[in-house]
Structures are given as structure tokens and as C-alpha cells.
Amino acid sequence: MTEEAAPTSSGPVPVLAVVGRPNVGKSTLVNRILGRREAVVQDIPGVTRDRVSYDAEWNGRAFTVVDTGGWDPDARGLAERIKAQAEIAVGLADAVLFVVDASIGITDADEAVVRVLRKSGKPVVLTANKVDDERAEIEAYGLWNLGLGEPHVVSALHGRGSGDLLDAVLEVLPKAPEAGEKAIGGPRRIAIVGRPNVGKSSLLNKLAGEERSVVDNVAGTTVDPVDEIVDLDGDQWRFIDTAGIRKRVKEASGHEYYAWLRTSTAIERAEVCVLVLDGSQSVAEQDLRILQEVREAGKALVIAFNKWDLVDAERRYFLDREIERDLVQVQWAPRINITAKTGWHIDRLVPALRRSIEGWETRVTTGALNAFLGRIVAEHPHPVRSGKQPRILFGSQVQTAPPTFKLFTTGKLDAGYERFVERRLREEFGFVGTPIEIKVQPRE
Ligand code: GDP
Ligand code: GDP
Predict the structure, then answer these.
(1) Which atom of ligand 1 approaches the CA of 30 most closely?
(2) Most buried one in 13, 139, 378, 413, CB count within 10 A?
């Protein structure tokens, strides 16, 4: 029923980190870059924004924006914190967008960032924000003194100057595949994610074993120092951000936030994520949060229950209940039980990864899709709502990785009906290991 999936593996998309003091307008600017408003979720203490990495595009080029701003501005030691933030940003990004508030001018905290940025040698695009009108522009030019090159004057709030700013960003970012046109080849990108101590580094060490080829300098790639290439089962695989896995990021305060920043960025850069759970412990809030991020980012997924040596019959019973209750949203993800410590069953990981990637890249022909839609609509029409009955007229798969469908209809579909369509799509076409996105376009 499915066409052969076209290869969509591409080189790593370059990463742009946005740094600057609290309140200079970083998130306003990020929203401007993304051209949309992102949901702001506040549920980690000390973290004001949940999602920190986003896919962006300008003039047909794709890049990842990391908003490093989401930490508690009330924390003591502002200059220290902001310096640490800049160091992390420099470590994970290909280029840095340094935002200062031109209406205030340069502060000590800004100076601390400048020193870190200069030392790093990473390209920096200096942004003078809150230049809402021409009068303010004059003062902004004083920022030439920072020695970071031309200050790009913008008003994130009103959009002034943001196009020129993005042009300047593209100049310094390494070239990546054109957006939409994904280059063929290159190792698949995997992120091993999970909360601390579940066994992520044990798993990677076991997988890499003697084969470990620490590749800190792969020619022509970006953000190398933190990726690692491992030969497994006849193929090369790129493990994203293994530095973050091996070296724990333990800043005095806010290390939780930095860990999250790394996780979120790794997920965004990956094609497929391995969520490692500790099988001997209950599924935790933090596990679910990572799952949510993987789904929202639209990545392929494999769930690995580690520490299986510690799982006895009783724990097994409760685990099955937890899977039914907490992991119901990702029933489609392949699950494997492993013991990273001894290597038991880790040979099951690669086949699971391959299945998930295949599901992620599955393309259904328009003919097959519409035959299927016709069938399910006939068998199970949409319920009547206030005298009207929305109908699906036609559909097409507009994208793979993840599979994305557009349905043209005669009205809005109930959420329940959309879930029904998704469930039936999975029954019919597989889509193992991948989220599916359904976009409904009601006819005017
Ligand atoms: P962050 O803490 O650096 O992420 O800063 P925010 O994006 O949350 O912005 C802090 C405040 O500055 C908010 O009240 C914004 O509305 C305001 N702001 C952001 N950009 C501009 C701008 O270009 N001009 C003016 N006048 N205000 C801005
Ligand atoms: P990470 O923080 O997720 O990278 O976790 P680590 O790989 O550092 O492992 C945390 C702890 O769990 C270490 O003490 C490991 O030896 C232990 N561990 C890892 N895998 C297993 C396993 O399969 N079984 C058991 N019993 N312990 C494990």
C-alpha cells in the first residue's frame, strides 16, 4: 500500500543560539524570527519557557534557533549566570545572536558575555534591540565599540530591521540543505534522551564498545564536538550531543534548565529519538515531558526500558499498567526491554530504529489515500453537528518525516473524529514509530 520511502536524511541543520540579558527582548525576537507566537509554558521551577529549540527558515534555508533566555531572572549572580549561559550557547551553536537593549546600553553583564563570545571565535551577530524609531538608531551605533562588528538595529516588537538581521544571520551560518529539499545520505541522527541516571551513557558505551570512533571533527559538518559516529549493524549512526550525555551539565544553579536545553536541542536536531526509561521505576513526569517534546518536534521514536535486570514479576505487572495509562499517546512507538549494563538485548535497538525511521518516512500515494478515505467515510461517517455533517472530500500526504496529511473537508472535524482517522491510517499503512500530523482545511 505504501510507496517506497524517499531518503530524507540530511546533514545537520545549523544551530543559532540567542543570548542576552533578561528583558532585552530575546523571546520577542525569536517569535519574530519564527513568524509566529509560541506557547509559553511555565512548569519547571526557574524556567519560564518550556520549549527552547525551534525549526526556523529564512530565504529557503533551514536552521535551528535556540532561545537561551528561559531562566529565572530573579536568580542571584546575574553576571555569572549569564556568562554560563553564553558558554553553553557557544558550545552548542554554530553562530550566536547576541541581543542587547539599545534603549539601556551596555551593562556589566553584557560585557561578560562579550568576553565569552570573543574568546569562542564563533560568529556573532550583534543585535541592538528596541530601536523603535530612527532617533534611537544613532545611539545604537555606539555599540560598534564592543568590537563585535556591525550592530544590527531592530525592533523585535514592531519587526523593524528583522529581515536584514536574518540576512546577516544566514551569512554567518554554515550552509545546510535547502529547506524542503533534503540532501541524501549521511549517517542517521539519533538522540538518546531521558532523565538523569536511567542509563543513557551506559547504553551508548555499550553500543559503541570497541567500535567507538569518537569523531570530533567530521569534515564539512557542523557542531561536531558534541556528536559521535558509531558503526552499528553495517551502518553509521550519528549520536547527537553525546557530550551532554557523558559530561553532566551541573551548573551551580539552573543546571536542570541547561540539561533541558541540551535535551530539547538534541531532539530538534535528531531524526529519531531513543527515550530511555528506567524499567525498575515508575514512569515520571519528566519522562512524559520529554515524550511530549519528541511528539511536538515530529521525530521518530523508540522507547527503551532499561535496567530490565531489576524488573521482577511484580514490577512487570505495574509497568504494564503504566504503559497503558501513561504511554497511551505513543502506543505506536516500538518498545524494547534492555539491560545496558550487561548489553542484554541491545541488539534490538537498531532494528527498532530502522522500523521507526521507515514509518517516519512512509509516503502514501494520493490514490491509495483517497481510496482509503472513501472507505472509512462510508463505514463511519462524521457525526451530525447542529444539523450539519462535515465530510472529508479529499486528502493528500503533503509531507513525510513526519507524515503529514491535509484533509479537505466541508467543515471542522471533531477532535474525536480526527483521532479516529489517525487510528485507521495507522491500521492501514503502518506508521510505526512516528507521530502523524493531520491538517484539516474546511472548504469556504
Ligand atoms: P527576554 O527576557 O530577553 O526574552 O525579553 P522579552 O522578549 O520577554 O521582552 C522583554 C520586554 O521587552 C517585553 O515587555 C517586550 O514587549 C519588550 N520588547 C521586546 N522587544 C522590544 C522592542 O523592540 N521595542 C520595545 N519598545 N520593547 C520591546
Ligand atoms: P545516565 O545519567 O542516563 O547517562 O545514566 P548512566 O548510564 O550514568 O547510569 C546511571 C546508573 O545506572 C549507573 O550506576 C549505571 O551503572 C546504572 N545502570 C545503567 N544501566 C543499567 C542496567 O541496565 N541495569 C542496572 N542494574 N543498572 C544500570
Answers:
(1) 7
(2) 13
70 lines ligand 1 (CB under 6 A): no
Name the residue at shortest CA distance from atom 7 of ligand 1. Answer: 25
Is residue 69 lining ligand 1, measured as CB closer than 6 Å? yes
On whether the CB atoms of residues 410 and 379 are closer than 8 A, the answer is: no
pLDDT band at 185 (very low <50, low <70, confident <90, very high): low
Better-scored residue on pLDDT, 39 or 23:
23
Residue of 192, 197, 202 best suited for mutating to test ligand 2, as the one with most atoms within 8 Å of CB: 202
Which ligand has the nearest atom to the CA of 338?
Answer: 2
Picking from 47, 38, 84, the residue whose alpha carbon sits closest to that of residue 65 is 38
Question: Residue 259, exposed/middle/buried by CB under 10 A (0-12, 13-18, 19+)?
Answer: middle
Q: Over 90: is that where the pLDDT of 349 sits?
A: yes
**127: Cβ below 6 Å to ligand 1?**
no
User: Which ligand does the CA of 72 lie closest to?
Assistant: 1
How far away, in angstroms, is 157 Cα from ligand 1 center? 7
Q: What is the pLDDT of residues 267-318, one digit of tens each?
A: 988 999 999 999 999 999 989 999 999 999 999 999 999 999 999 999 999 9
The residue behind cell 491509495 is 368
The 10 Å Cβ neighbour count of residue 358 is 17
From 138, 124, 92, select the one nearest 243 (Cα to Cα). Answer: 92
Binding site membership of 22 for ligand 1 (Cβ less than 6 Å): yes
Which H, E and C letters describe 200-213, residue by residue? HHHHHHHHHHHHCE
| pLDDT one-digit tens code per residue, 81-98 | 777 777 777 777 889 999
Distance 316 CA to ligand 2 centre (A): 19
21 marked as binding residue: yes
Interatomic CA distance for residues 132 and 134, integer angstroms: 7
Residue whose C-alpha is closest to residue 81's, from 287, 264, 258, 294: 258
ipTM of the complex: 0.64
Say how many Å lie between the CA of residue 37 and the centre of ligand 2: 39
Which set of grid coordinates corresponds to residue 126? 550583534
Cα separation values, 325 from 96, 101, 108, 198, 283, Å:
42, 47, 50, 21, 10
Measured from the CA of 21, which atom of ligand 1 is nearest?
3
Please enumerate in sequence order all residues whose Cβ is within 8 A of that of 344, keeping only pairs 6 or more positions apart, or say none.
Answer: 308, 309, 338
| 276 annotated to bind ligand | no
